[in-house]
Batch of 4 targets.
Target 1
Amino acid sequence: ASFTKAAGIVNLTQPAISLHIKRLEEQVGRKLIERGARKVTLTHEGEILLGYARRILALHREAEGQLGNAELSGTGRFGAPEDFDASVLSLVLAQFRRRHTAVLLEITIGLGPDVRRAFDAGGLDIAIINVEPGERDGFKLGGDDRVWVASPDFERRPDEAVPLVMYTPTCDWRRIATDLLDQSGIAWTMAMTSSGVTGLNAGIDAGLGISVAASKSVGKNLQIVGKQLGLPVLPPFEYRLVESPAAPAAARRLAFMIKEVFSQDFVEEATD
């Protein structure tokens, strides 16, 4: 994480974050941060203040939970891709529902490109999208590697075109995979196309062909096969949270909670 990431959490610029820290140091009369060539660390006084800050935030959340359930109302429209970490998503949504019972969330889970298009068209207030590294839209939640996967029982004959199990042609991952195969001179055929994750997983489990997945999502029912089959290395990707400037308060609060989950330790890990 970084000052840039911190700025994204609180919707300020990086220079503004630096100014806030400077003012805080002036208020307490102590140096709170040591800036190295590439790393920012807390001083002893900074560690002490961090402990108090965490206690203040914990008390704020506790008070909000007891008194603030009705402070938000209305509707928030949120979208996320099917391959995003479901355990994290369910945790955040459950916390939001407990804290803000008067809010109606309209949640869309779908293919990454479809979620991105819905957000761009104004159909979503906030969305998690997957993008290529280097894109600057939104707040970075994390990243992962794309890998070639197949069923443990899958076998490919040397003279056989690579059978693929992929999402529909609108999927960026499908385009990236087939473009790399073409550039590498590797013949391929589309063994199965699915518009949803259930159908895709069924095709992979049946041994119909290979697919592309995020490395952190590969379970025991799959094997990574890129190296053994001599397939090209796939590029990594990032998850980012994007917010509409017109997002209502309910959607902005959900966005803040998502950022909070992914940024709990940004101070300790910060680099300049």
Target 2
Amino acid sequence: MLSNAIKFTEQGRVQLALENGGDQWRIIVSDTGIGIPPHARDLIFEEFRQVDQTSRRQYGGTGLGLAIVNKLVRTMGGTVSFQSELGQGSTFTVTLPLQTQALLQPS
């Protein structure tokens, strides 16, 4: 997510935040980049999907990054969400449960 934020923000800022919400962590990546058009929002977590061919040529990549993030986060019991406005940027939020007790207990 951070790599995408940097890649798609030619001018402006990219911000990374980590928040402890008690029983969960939130990782938030915000940028002031190009944003995601409404027609592409349902597709960005699919493997090998990019917004369009123009973006692929200009920005490169395989279209796997967000698909991998989404699968890893779901495997860990978390969620990935985002908000985006075309031409204004995007904010991606990963929410992961803290299950340290379960991880530390022998099986």
Target 3
Amino acid sequence: VKSQREIDLLRQGILLSEAGLERLQVDAMAGMRQGDLVALYRQGVATAAAGLSHPVITAEYVTLGAQAKGADAGAVAGDPLKCDMVCTVGGYASDMSRNFTFGPPSADQSELHAIAERAFEDGLAELVPGNTLAHVHRVATNSLARQGLRSYRRGH
């Protein structure tokens, strides 16, 4: 069970990470390498964290391309970008991820996103007092399977 202080630090980490991801999404351009994209995220976090009394540490896991490209490869139109970001505030780590595409998504990318959104909504509807997280996960996983996505990978 988390205390209010712990919850506040976790929420602060989420807000800072969102600021970093927004900076990345707005300023990312074709040709940028993974290191460039991580730098944008870190700049967004640092700007949002200015003046905080707690130490802020980030860890970034970025995958560029449908088949992971090397760290020196530049982004091109249509590339997916998977960002799994950890923002630790005062010793409490908030872990979140976002997926983007460079330019408009392909029809396949749009369909996969729609499938994931529906599964998320199905799971979210079950996130109520009395239900275990295992149950919520099972509902979301079953939703993916019903929609034709029998296997998936979260990156862990």
Target 4
Amino acid sequence: VAPSERSHQIRNQRHKTMLDRARQMLTQVRRWIPHRAIVRVADSSFAALEFLDALRQLPTTISVITRLRLDAALYEPAPERQAKQMGRPRKVGQRLATLKARLDAPETTWQTITIEGWYGGRTYDLQIISDTAVWYHTGLPAVPMRWVLVKDPNRQTRTSSLSLNRHPGYG
């Protein structure tokens, strides 16, 4: 439970958001167990660029799996800097299609997977696609990630998009 900003003002305390508390907690857990892999599975409220970047800056990996907006601005990684190139280094490369556009595109090649024992022991066929990208918004840090888009061809479950930060395959 994270008290509201108003609650902190009444008590004359400094306000900490839920993301501040989560970052602080994960940083402390990382100090306690520095050599263990830590994977944080969270809802979409933890899909915040500043939070993900703060965890990415730690000396050892903390992976975060969270829902990602279907309209998130995804980019290719920044191209290599050329010799004697002027100006500041680029943060990102070319803009990629949104996950919503990939979901609706007829040329998207889906992979079918079967999940057994899901929700009441039933078997589900789901379709997925996955790739790597850099999530970026102006004025915020660029965060490399692997994204996964999951859809149910029978439309019994809702379409989901996940981001996997610090995935071994990327970043």
